[in-house]
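Extended Data, panel c. Modelled sequence:
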Amino acid sequence: MTTYAAILAGGIGNRMHSATIPKQFLQLGDRPIIIWTIQKILGSHAFDYVYIAIHPEWKDYLQELLEKWDICEPNLTIVSGGKERLDSIENVIDAICDSHTVETEDKILIHDAVRPFITNQIISDSLEALNRHPAVVAAIPATDTMLWIESDDRVDSMPDRSKLYNGQAPDSFRLQVLAKSIRELTPRQRRVITGTAQICLLDGIPIHTVPGDPINIKLTSDSDMLIAEGLIRRDMGETAEDKNE
């Protein structure tokens, strides 16, 4: 069995008001967001191969960052990201199939470059769950009151919060199952897909969940960055305390 990780960093859009570069390259603490994420994935020691899907215009810049932070893993591969998330996933799968023989038990974990607080627990839970299920996603229970609004800002209903969860990343799959589901997508389905696990759901593949973590946030806005900076300061402070003990 071979275990793969795919880090999706193909986007170039940005909701950060002050940013002039893609958000995955913004500085968080002492290093760019994407470096935090790569180091978390590699540091888990859970993967035989790691792929990063990056926009072609930013490939050289990413390579410079990897060299600066002394990330020279021989099993780390950079591939071109596509126009949409689905395209980037396909590019990673194609690259894997070009270089490796894919077996039935092979697994792939797909993560966002802008979720730098993924934990080893989430990674291990996700990969272990694939021994029983074909597809899993990290999720946490919804804590806010949910409002269903069709139009005109009018609340039509309030869904039962106990049955609602916030999906996070990573999304993890048996690799052959994901590849088959992608091949069988119709043009219409390809247009409506917004999440990775949705690929298999549209193919009738059951999606199971593993516990996510509230700190496993996706950094998409200025307010997210403020939270992330606080988390980094906390973690760095704890590390300093550990060294002093």
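The longest strand covers residues 165-174. This feature is highlighted in the accompanying rendering.
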